[in-house]
Amino acid sequence: SYAGVFFTEARVRDKLWVSELLLVDFSGQINSFYVSLTGYQEMSRYSLGWSVTAATFCSCHSLLLTAGGPDHPLTGKSRLVGRASHAGIVALRLLNDSPHYVELLDAEEQSVLTSRAWLPALPFLSSTPIQDFITKLSISSCGSRLAVLHQSGTLSVWLIPSLVLESSTRLEEQPLHDECNPQLLQAPERRRAKGEFLSNPLKYHPVGVAWWNSESVVLARISGALTVLGVQDLTNMLGDSPEFLEGVPRISQCFQKGFFGLECDSVVRGRRPSCREESAGEDPDVELEVESDDDDDNWLSLGKR
Length: 305
Description:
Radius of gyration: 23 Å
Low-confidence stretches: 121-128, 274-305
Structural class: mainly beta
Distance between the termini: 24 Å
Strand content: 25-35%
Number of strands: 18
């Protein structure tokens, strides 16, 4: 499966091809293909040498940005504190000729990479640091900022192309992070879904991030909450409470003051009770589907699922 799929015209030189398709899989393999209206041709293959948890492409600077997995040789290294590579972020510049990619690392980072060949043989020299892996990367439309979601729920913002850390906000510091969907809490017929949600230790963690504009980001959480936060003052542009989508939502990148939101609405259908069972009342463990006729307009227009 793929951590990222991107189209770019940065290396397209022949009019025969419309675009180049970049495929970054979770194992750290990068494949690219020239594509046209009638076919495709493989352009390059490249291996990072470590797994990847997230990836994004910056068309403004022709940079492929990746986040390394647990086997990333630079993540958590004390020598690299303050660098993006310490968090697992590595940028690659696209080249026209072989090897087609170059990792943008300084001398200190290169030194750590070259030394990893013999370090695993001496595990007593270092201890394994606690790593806060990256789950999502999102580049702003102007290509000046990178929004990053971490496994802990932290939101960090990095400047592009320098990869200097601009801000880092822990989960508990994010406004309205612990808001719950009132429709879920107040609906008696959804008590099973309510119980599952309240027992989830990650219920308030963000699962999606996109840039609303160059100064604010959209955050989607496991709770279904959607907020638009300014990266400087962390104020919610939607007001005193978030908007909510059903289930664990997925959001697209923003376009012209809008974006797509994908809801995941789970329904457990109970068996139809017989006439004899109807008099005994409903099964308290059965959650039935309830349809809503609420068509109120909202700031977010949802398509039918």
